[in-house]
């Protein structure tokens, strides 16, 4: 199989949460451990930082990778989901994994995947660990897919664990209270491995402290320890929390290991994060006159901050290209969007995409009015055609809507 055929096989033959939702979620690590054994335990050869959290995992992971690259290390970076190409998920020093490596990995292990019915995410994690081990990277930033405790990435023994924050997302899998979700995320805390927590509430702090004590893991709350943050190419208001988390994580990494990172490495890493790692979709400006902004925020925790920042923009009229997936709690997120805007409702082009008609009908209950479009690209094109130079166009609601525009 060539690269395109290989990727299609991965997407279509095996369960993939991003495409299918609940049916692809597996509640134990049995398959991942089987795969690890089959591959010769590549994760045991890796030095890692493990990153979990409801929001900010991607930005935090990319910032950490960028700084460590500036410090001269060979840095593996594993994140999900991708925006445009599957290879974005697995990078070394910002360079995506090769098509050839992916094709060879799948071809060599295809019969094992089929015999054990591995999910898309399980085999992708195996691919990343195998790739980093063969490349002999110095350090690897591993982002949790969902949750933590039962996530496929949770077979690593990291140098450091990082939990960015806890919000109400994926409640059908992780629990319906902040404490329950925190318990799942806290599952990445390992025995005597330090953990850095970005943001917390009274409800979640107790969960983290209890788990850390149980594992005899030193715990650090970045929001209490870091006051000043370095400037960054990531300009979203929410990035202040991520930058504090990263600065504290780097401080702990140096105290507990032989890794050396200078102040200049942090400054350059923060400013060069997009160039160093290829991060996209975080309060990203795509155009001027009209100003076009896209952001992957998709749950109430993230959208509250992003909508606040959008409210600080100056414009004549606001145009919002909006699409969501079908398991999104619309009663929780739609009230966060401004009523004084023209909406372009669309459906992201994945099986989980919610019908634009359903979204439009529900949005009207909250005073959000606009037109329905057959695709994200049609909605975006009409917004561009309609908006004046002094207007702002915002694209969001789902990672997959942003991906289609990019």
Radius of gyration from the alpha-carbon trace, in angstroms: 21 Å
- Describe the strand arrangement of the main beta sheet, using strand numbers: 4-3-2-5-1-6-7-8
Please state the overall shape, judged from the principal axes of the Cα atoms: globular
The main β sheet shows up as: 8 strands, mixed
- What's the β-strand tally? 14
What proportion of the residues is helical, as a percent range? 40-55%
User: What's the end-to-end separation, in Å?
Assistant: 27 Å
Strand content: 5-15%
The helix count comes to: 18
Mean pLDDT: 93
Low-pLDDT segments? 18-25
Structural class: alpha/beta
Can you give a write-up of this model?
- The chain has helices at residues 3-13, 17-20, 30-39, 57-70, 99-116, 120-135, 171-174, 178-185, 202-214, 222-225, 239-256, 263-271, 273-277, 300-311, 330-333, 356-364, 376-386, 399-405, and strands at residues 48-52, 75-78, 90-92, 95-96, 139-143, 160-163, 195-197, 219-221, 284-287, 291-294, 318-322, 342-345, 370-372, 392-396.
- By secondary structure, the protein is of the alpha/beta class.
- The chain is globular, with a radius of gyration of 21 Å.
- It starts with a helix and ends with a helix.
